[in-house]
Fe-S protein
Amino acid sequence: MTSMGTVSELWRYPVKSMLGERCEALRMEERGVEGDRLFAVRDTKGKFGSGKSTRRFRPNLVIDVPGTGLVEQAWLGKRLYVGKEVELEVYATTERCGMVAFAQSELPEEPGILRHISQQSGLKFGVYARVVVPGIVHFHDSVALKG
């Protein structure tokens, strides 16, 4: 199995819909990233916030790979081996909603983002993966694809 990329960013979002934190390492557990989205905030009307953060797409792992376009969509049904410990199974594409276009902290409102994703990929951008083998992922870990 040969490396196909490296981990270029790691993020954890302790409070759903709030600013996340960039990390040097993350512990991946069966339910996902340890300490991720444990809490949610409600407004005075009892509604939960959704999707607002300084990173529009709120990824936990960003993997730098060669190629252009939506290369991650070819990973569906395959396994990612991240670093020395973690194994992930890619099981679905991520369908994006209008929240990615809203103003988020220092990012201005950008309605063209969602329009572009819709035109290019039918709102599919990114993938979901389940943790098959838990462990710790580090910034700059190598990532291999199998399956």
In short: The chain has one domain: 3-146.
